[in-house]
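Write out the 3D structure for:
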Amino acid sequence: MRLAFVLYKYFPYGGLQRDCARFIEELHQRGHDCRVYCTDWQGGTLAFVDLRVAPPSRGSNVRRNERFLQWVQADLATDPVDGIIGFNKMPGLDVYFAGDPCFIDSALENRNLLYRLGWRFRHFAAWEKAVFDPASTTRILLISASEQRKFERHYHTPSARMHLLPPGVATDRRRPPDAVSRRAGARHALGLTHDVHTLLFIGSGFITKGLDRAIRALSRLQAAHPERRMRLLVAGQDRVGRFGILTSRQKVHDKVTFLGGRDDIPDLLLAADTLVHPARSEAAGIVLLEAMVAGLPVIATAACGYAHHIEAAGAGIILPEPFNQASLNDALLQTMNAEFLAQCRARGLAYAGREDLYSQHITGADIIEQVLSETVSVSDV
């Protein structure tokens, strides 16, 4: 089959973008022709992909989204495909990969009435409804049961159109046999001596992922243990600006290292002592599972779709919603206890060995093939 994948932007350090690339690779290996539509592609391209980048567009996000969809639809009208798979919500999709949280739920919970009367809200609400409305035919690949419940509550989407996938942790994230020596090498490369207690934050979108919360918690942790050397490593593609200012205000500017987007995440997971992920909103949070399968204890919020795996495994601490800064501060204090970290590591690795945390792209590709084969068969009648 000829397949078109649609997403706004691709950059190599985004979780949604990595998910998209893995689906493309899996379906290509199965013999399908894969085309990608996007507004911007950063990083290396896949040699077997027909990449089509939209012309530059100015204006608001809403206007750019509308022009992008019009451009995609015009191109497909002259060069059609057998199926359209979207990684962002928009009208006209055959399959949607639900990597983003439920917009309407977040808007109703966190935005005021003035926002909900505006054109931006109307645009994103309408495009989400185009996917999840009972009258739509789009099939939905979900990565979180908690997000599925939100979509069902707001849109009454028929269950037959919704498919809950297992997680898709990449195999290179699993703890290797030479983890101890690789940890030593990674810490040496980062300038970390053995006595530096190291926290790791991974994510592009610092506000959404809660970096400010992590910085404040680090400040309290250092004040509680002035005798200990500490470091917070921040890996992710976003603007440092306000967060750099916050590190100075919290008197931890010399203890926070902004690494930017990184290709060596497996080594960072081995180098650190704890993953800190106090996200405000996170449909899944694959980084929680990547840390666990690498043997890294996790401190995260219940806002993360995959938080239940950490709780089930006993691989760290999940902070309840609504968020409380003092709870995060207290949780980080527990990371100073070597026995606590060792227990979290052992329980997490045991869970990673018995649960399916890895087959998302395979299961999802199976569903895509089944759904689109049915569609093609009907259209041929």
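The domain at 171-354 is CATH 3.40.50.2000 (Rossmann fold).
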